Amino acid sequence: MANSNDSNSSKDKAKDALSCNTLMFNTLVKTLTQAVSEAVADLYPQANLEERALYDIFSPAPNFKMGHLSFACFPLAKALRQGPPQIAGALAGHKAISECAIVEKVSAQGPYLNFFLKRESLGNIVIGEINSGEYFEHRLIEGDEKWMIEYSQPNTHKVLHVGHMRNLCLGNALVRMCRFGGVNMTAVTYPGDSGTHVAKCLWYLKKYNKEEVPEVEKGAWLGEIYTKANTLLEDELGTDKEEQNRKELTEILKQLHGESGEYYDLWQETKKWSVDLMKEAYDWADVTFDRWFWESEVDAASLSYAKELYEKGKLVKDDGAIGMDLSDDKLGFCLLIKTDGTGLYATKDVELARKKFEEFGIDKNIYIVDDRQAYHFNQVFKVLEKIGFEQAKKCYHLKYAMVELPDGGMSSRKGNIVPLMDLVSQMEKQIKEQFLNKYLEDSESGWTQKEVDETAKMIANGAIKYGMTRVDNNRKIVFSMEEWLKLDGETGPYLQYVHARIARLCQKLHYNEDLIVDWDLLNTEIETSLMVKLMEFNDVVAAGIAKLQTMHLCGYLYDLGKLFNSFYAECPIGKAENETLAHTRLALAHATGEVMREGLALLGIPAPEKM
RNA sequence: GCAUCCGUAGCUCAGCUGGAUAGAGCACUCGCCUUCUAAGCGAAUGGUCGCAGGUUCGAAUCCUGCCGGAUGCGCCA
User: Fold this and answer.
1) Lookup: nucleotide whose C1' is closest to A373 CA
2) Domain of A552, in residue numbers
3) In angstroms, how far is B9 C1' from A568 CA?
4) pTM score
5) Cys staple from A116: which of A38, A104, A445, A491, with CB 3.0 to 4.6 Å?
C-alpha cells in the first residue's frame, strides 16, 4: 500500500516538473471547437463545458477514409448524461456543426463525430499560412517560465564516441523545438574536465607514453592515452605497484586542486586538445550552448557549500563522512563529503544547481543524462528540496537508455568504442560512392566536387541525427556500423530526399506566391490527406515539447514524406490537366517542402536543395 | 534483496493521458523510369501484443503477481 502510494507520488512529481500547457493555436480545430461548443450549449443547456476541454478532444481520424478529424464523445457522456453514440448523433444533426463554414461533411459513427473539412478551408488557412510563413509564427506553449536544458556532459581526456551523440542529438532537438514553440530556453553543457579520469590520463602521458604528440587530432589521441592508462592501472591491481600508483594519482589530483605544479600545467594544455575535439563535434552537429559549466569550476565551491550546509545543521556525519539521510524518502544516504574531506559527483551537482538557480533565475531545470544516473538525480533533487530550494520540484531528469555495441556497452575505459568521426567519415564516403559521385560525370547536372562534399556531409548528418532521435528514450540503441550505413527506408535521408525533390520541382516550375490556385481542384484522397497532415505539424511539435520527446516528430515527418512521395507519384504537376491545377498542386508541394524543412531544422537536420 | 527501464511480425521499432479492423521500415516475392530526382511508388506475405489474473461497456495501453533481459543501489564519475 505505502509502496504504491509512494510510486504514485514520485510519478506525479515527475509530471509536475514536466507540465506545461499548450495553447489553442490550431485555427481549424478552434473553429470546430466553437461550433461544437455552440451545439452543446443549445442541445444540453444544463451542461457547462469549457472550450479548452472540447478543443483537446479533437484528434486526427484513424484513416483518411473516415474523415480528417475526429471528436470522441466518451468524455462528454457523464456531463451530458447521455450515451456517447446518442451525443454524437445529436451533435452531427445540429446546424452549428453541419453548417459550420469549414465543414464539408460531418457524420456520427458510433460514439465518434467525424469531420471532413472543406478543401478550400484547408487550402486557404493551412497551406496559405504555411506558404506565407505565418504558420510557423504561432506560439505553442503558454506562460513565460524560464527553462534550462543541460545536455552533453562529455569528459575531457576521453574519446568522444557515437554513444555521446544520442545525448547531443536529443538535447539539440528539444532545445530547438522548445524555442520554436515560444519557450524561453537556456541551453547549457557541463563537461567533466576534472577528477580521477584526468589524473589517470596525465599520469600515463607523463610517465609511460613514448609516442610523439601528433600534430592534428590531439583530442582523439589523448583519449587513447586514457584507455592505455586504465588498462595499465587495472593490470597492476593486486601487484606491488598498486600502492605506488595510488599515491601518484593522489599527488596529481592534489596539484590539480592546488592549481599549480607540472601536472596543473599539463592539464591546462591537454584539456584544450579535448575541448577542440568537442568543438569539432558541436560544429558538426550545429550545436551551440549559452553557457559552459566546467566541472572544475564548481569543484572547490561545491565543497565549501557542502561544509556550509553541514555547519548549518542541514547535513549529518555518518561513519566519518558527511551527507544527508534520505532513507525516509527511500533514497538511502546521499554522501556529500568523503572521510578524506573531498567531495563527490553529487556534491558538485548540488552546487551546480544552486548556481543555475542564482545565475539564471530558472523555473524549470532539465537534465539530459543517461538512465544509469536516475538514483543519483533523485538523491540530488531531494537534497535540493530539503535544503529549501523551491525550484527542486521543477528539476527533471530526462533519462535515455545507452547506445551499445552488439557485444555490450561502450566504454572509453575499455576502449571498445566507435569514435564519432569514424562513423561520420565512413558514412560520407558511402554516400558519395553510392549516390553523389555519379553527378560529377553527368554533364547535365554538373555538380562540383565541393557540392558533392557538402551534400554528403548534410546527408550523413541527417542520417545520424534521425537515427538518434527516432526511438523512444527508454529504449536502448544497439549500434552496428553496417545497419547505420543503410540509408533507405525510415531514415533522415528519406526526408531530405523529399525536400530536395520539392526544391527542384519548385525551381523548375517557377513556384511563386502569386500563383492563382483553386483548392477545390484537389479532389483526390492523397491530396486532401496531405493537406490535413500539414495542418498537424504544430500539434505534433507542441506535444513533443510537453513530453520532451523527439520520437513523434520523427514519425510525423516520415508519414508526411510518405504521403508526399505518393502524391508525387500519383499526381502530375507540370503536366496536370490545366494550369490552375498545376499551380495549386505546386503550392501544395511547396508547403510540404516548407514543413519538411522546418521539421528537419527542429531535429537539427539540414535540408539539401538537391541530392 | 530493493528500485527503474524494456519484452508487439523473422529482424529494428511505432501504437499519444484505455476507445473505431494492432501499424511502419528492413528482409523475402511480384509489378512500375519515352512524363516533374527510382535515395522513389504500388501490391503481396507476415502478429494467441512475454505469461496469468483483475478493473471497465471496452485493455497492447491501467493495477497485481510471475517469467525473461538491461541498469542502478554510501566514500568512482
Assistant:
1) B72
2) 423-602
3) 29
4) 0.95
5) A104
